[in-house]
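On clarity, I found the account of how folds are encoded harder to follow than it need be. For illustration, here is how one protein appears when written out as sequence plus structure tokens:

:::
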Amino acid sequence: MNVEDIFLKFANGGQRDFFSFETFILNLLKYHIENQDKKFALAESHRGFGDAYAENGFDNFKGHTIIDVKYSLHRMPSRMVTDQYIHRLSRLDKQPLFSNLLIINFHSVPSRIVSKMLEEISLINPEIKITIWDPDDITKLANKHKKKAAEIANNLFSLRLENAVTKEAGDWEKERDEKVELLKECYERGQFSMFLGAGVSSSAGMPDWNTLLNSLFVSYLTKEFTQQTNISDEDIKQIVERLNAIDEPSALMAARYLRKGLSKQTTEIKEFTKTITDNLYKLRDIKMSLSSDLITAISNLCMPRRTGAKVRTVITYNFDDLIERQLSLKSIQHHSIYNDNEAFDPDELPIYHVHGFLPEDTNKYEGLEKSTLVFSEEGYHQIYTDAYHWSNLVQLTSLRENNCLMVGLSLTDPNLRRLLDISARNIERQRHYAFMRRLPIDNFAYSELDGKKHQWVNNVKGAEEFLNRHHKLNEEIMKELGVSIIWFTSFEEIPDILKKISS
């Protein structure tokens, strides 16, 4: 494989290409520097400077050298590039102890940007020598180690994983604190959106998807068997549970089946919607407060500050109106949007219900029948296949323009992942953040059985190492979608983290 073919691997401009290019450069430099009996190490801190460092320098770089890999530096305005580096330098607790900053960009960087950077950064610390490598410099390095360069280029993903999983384990909480600080800075800038999933509503006792489907199955089967006295409600529940256990139908397939059963005529679509609404709120666990800690923390983030509103949009995949109720309690002006004809006042916070809206009190809202209810496969396919559907455009706009925080989402929805992939193109670093639950070793290797602690895994240390690699793999996959994971082990941690962001 020649160098030109290697460069073609990174030419599409997406997040995946950036991380592949970064992996290639860092591994090639590692080989190059260690061949000189010099130390090379990857940077571990999310708030640190650079991607790697050579403590004793290499080649003509004398002393501690920071290595920062970029992809689209050439596309950025010179002012923005300079400000970015000045900000990163000023953010350090003390003046950097490095002598050289080596910036490696996939494309050539205009000389005006280079000159501006050298001039302004030297005002902060004139002792730092800045060098920028372009494709010519990378080509020289690759030609010097042709065999190794080809080997690296053919094993990019496995090397990425190796770099990720070989980092020191056990520091995920420290990494989380660093990410929360970065997230707080994003929030303070005011270009901020929130994406809310089922976990938010569950915190207030709303039923999960499977519970709602089971209840609707019961409603459907009860309706079908009203003339047969030998089938009781308990019988129907047992049939449904057994059917789900044996057939394991997909949620969307089951919803399609229900829709066909509950809405045999177009005039009965309202009845179908009413049935879902009734079951949705009837199944809520009333022992849990509507103003859960999580919903309260989210509404506090939406509270306008003296300098203006920090949250620009809220996008929710939930049918319910729990967020609206909490915002109303706090007298926060908002507007629920559930179709493409809705407009909102600039002073109002838009709440986009991109999968449909089923408020408990329908009298408060108009045009609910125009809402695209993404409940069955038909509704999902309508949105997935229509690139210009209003809900897709709304999500994509927020993902492109804002830093987004995803709460209560599993991020397994193919349409959301597709939109994330589109929005991540030509962006080097993750702009968005998502809460994801981390599996502790105690919960994985042990469980309570008949009041006793039962050990399911003999090699607990090996299982812990596996879990660490599993979590790192998730982080690497989400990076390609432009998302940085904020881990938690208990759902009670999320409101506390949100409070840190808004404090």
In short: The chain has a mean pLDDT of 83. Residues 186 and 224 are 53 Å apart (CA to CA).
